[in-house]
TrEMBL record:
<dbReference type="InterPro" id="IPR006131">
    <property type="entry name" value="Asp_carbamoyltransf_Asp/Orn-bd"/>
</dbReference>
<comment type="subunit">
    <text>Heterododecamer (2C3:3R2) of six catalytic PyrB chains organized as two trimers (C3), and six regulatory PyrI chains organized as three dimers (R2).</text>
</comment>
<dbReference type="Pfam" id="PF00185">
    <property type="entry name" value="OTCace"/>
</dbReference>
<dbReference type="Pfam" id="PF02729">
    <property type="entry name" value="OTCace_N"/>
</dbReference>
<dbReference type="InterPro" id="IPR006132">
    <property type="entry name" value="Asp/Orn_carbamoyltranf_P-bd"/>
</dbReference>
<feature type="binding site">
    <location>
        <position position="59"/>
    </location>
    <ligand>
        <name>carbamoyl phosphate</name>
    </ligand>
</feature>
<feature type="binding site">
    <location>
        <position position="58"/>
    </location>
    <ligand>
        <name>carbamoyl phosphate</name>
    </ligand>
</feature>
<dbReference type="InterPro" id="IPR036901">
    <property type="entry name" value="Asp/Orn_carbamoylTrfase_sf"/>
</dbReference>
<dbReference type="GO" id="GO:0016597">
    <property type="term" value="F:amino acid binding"/>
</dbReference>
<dbReference type="GO" id="GO:0006520">
    <property type="term" value="P:amino acid metabolic process"/>
</dbReference>
<dbReference type="InterPro" id="IPR002082">
    <property type="entry name" value="Asp_carbamoyltransf"/>
</dbReference>
<comment type="function">
    <text>Catalyzes the condensation of carbamoyl phosphate and aspartate to form carbamoyl aspartate and inorganic phosphate, the committed step in the de novo pyrimidine nucleotide biosynthesis pathway.</text>
</comment>
<keyword id="KW-0808">Transferase</keyword>
<feature type="binding site">
    <location>
        <position position="259"/>
    </location>
    <ligand>
        <name>carbamoyl phosphate</name>
    </ligand>
</feature>
<dbReference type="GO" id="GO:0006207">
    <property type="term" value="P:'de novo' pyrimidine nucleobase biosynthetic process"/>
</dbReference>
<dbReference type="InterPro" id="IPR006130">
    <property type="entry name" value="Asp/Orn_carbamoylTrfase"/>
</dbReference>
<feature type="binding site">
    <location>
        <position position="139"/>
    </location>
    <ligand>
        <name>carbamoyl phosphate</name>
    </ligand>
</feature>
Length: 300
């Protein structure tokens, strides 16, 4: 494959993707969701490496299930048990796996910007499974897919993302994807958790409850030490989706969360499986979305 072909098949982010490209992925995911046979070996004989330089449970398992349902040979790589611990660079590790003959790589990284550099030097398609606070495109795609299941169209949909937007790759990917699809996006966050580089209006938590979709972000409790949040209790009181607040949602509105969930912090435990919650359907939708993205990388 030429460099141009590899870059077209890679998925580094949703920024720059147009409506037609996103629609194509969502439609193909719908195809895979409808298949009664769990395993469809369209990628038999193709090798896919899951290269997670940052810990993950849900995302890694979701990718692995998607790969195996497509019949691919799966290689799982964990940085904690690799030569990276011995000082080998991320590039050298990825280049080594490319040299061994992998056909595509799924990569999760802590530092933002490194994935773009890798994509310019590696000659197989790469799929971003989360890089720093930059993007998490497959999470946003499964979120868009979940919204489309509920509302049919994303055009004109009022979506509010609540929480630590500043450090959230999920918020950024959703912003780019939803905007491309014609949705209206707003943020709700404390001053210390705002992403000022994005041209997005900020609204109050009371205003957020009027949206069609209320997406709660995980409170990164480890940031308490930096003074960003005084306490989990205070955050819940000011920005959490409590049972009392959820009672004000419109009957058609849905609650979303990228998980993992801090129950009784950003969202009350009773709301996680509430009739208006789509948190577990989101997780289910990750598999067909990732099947579509992996197939796109290897079949076009």
């Amino acid at each position: 494959m030429s460099t141009m072909q590899v870059q077209h098949k890679s998925l580094l982010g949703l920024k720059g993707l147009n409506r037609e490209e996103i629609e194509a992925i969502l439609s193909r995911a719908a195809y895979w969701e409808q298949q009664s046979e769990k395993v469809q070996p369209v990628l038999a004989g193709r090798f896919v490496a899951n290269m997670f330089f940052e810990n993950s449970t849900r995302t890694r398992f979701s990718f692995e299930v998607a790969e195996k349902r497509l019949g691919a040979e799966v290689l799982n790589f964990s940085a904690a048990a690799s030569s990276v611990q011995k000082g080998e660079s991320i590039y050298d590790t990825v280049k080594t796996l490319e040299s061994m003959g992998i056909d595509a790589g799924i990569i999760r990284l802590k530092p933002a910007g490194v994935l773009q550099e890798l994509a310019e030097r590696i000659k197989v398609p790469l799929i971003n499974a989360g890089d720093g606070n930059n993007e998490h495109p497959t999470q946003a795609l499964l979120d868009l897919y979940t919204m489309r299941q509920q509302f049919g169209s994303l055009n004109g949909l009022n979506v509010v993302i609540v929480g630590d937007v500043k450090h959230s790759r999920v918020a950024r990917s959703n912003y780019w994807g939803l905007t491309a699809m014609g949705a209206k996006v707003s943020f709700c966050a404390p001053d210390s958790m705002r992403a000022d580089e994005l041209n997005v209006p900020y609204i109050s938590i009371d205003e957020a409850l009027k949206a069609d979709v209320v997406m709660m972000l995980r409170v990164q409790l480890e940031r308490h030490e930096s003074g960003m949040i005084r306490s989990a209790e205070e955050y819940r009181e000011q920005y959490g989706l409590t049972v009392e607040r959820a009672a004000k949602l419109a009957s058609h509105a849905i609650i979303m969360h990228p998980a993992p969930v801090n129950r009784d912090v950003e969202i009350d435990s009773d709301l996680v499986e509430h009739p208006q919650s789509r948190i577990f359907p989101q997780m289910a939708n990750g598999v067909p979305i990732r099947m579509a993205v992996i197939e796109r990388a290897l079949r076009g």
